[in-house]
Amino acid sequence: MRPPSGPYTRSRVDVSVPTSARVYDVLLDEQHYQADHDLVAEPRRAAPWAKQAPRDNPVHGLRAAQYLARAGITQFVDLGAGIARGCGHGDVHHVVRAVHPTARSPLPQRAAERLVDDAGLHGEQEYR
Fold this sequence. Notes:
Layout: H1 20-27, H2 34-46, H3 53-70, H4 92-99, H5 106-118
Helix pairs in contact: 1-2, 3-4
């Protein structure tokens, strides 16, 4: 396996600086660092009614994916921009494959194949 290089190398994370993924988790009432909570505090005081929107967001995305799968779309790319989480309703690929068992998400499969190759593993694994 080759040593990591480029933009994905391990580095220190400055937890005093909020990140979008952690802030989104705070909006979902997850626990993260103080900087993330501080960034969310004022908007929550100003618009307490907006607390439901982050919870509705993944459900809306899953409904849209399910609708498109029923319309015959069989290739999906889920461009997640946060920390992976189960929202209690499944993930895009699970929802889509429940409608279309042959549906695929090609980018994650290519990434998984590259990881297997880089690790020197070979076989007939299939990643969906």
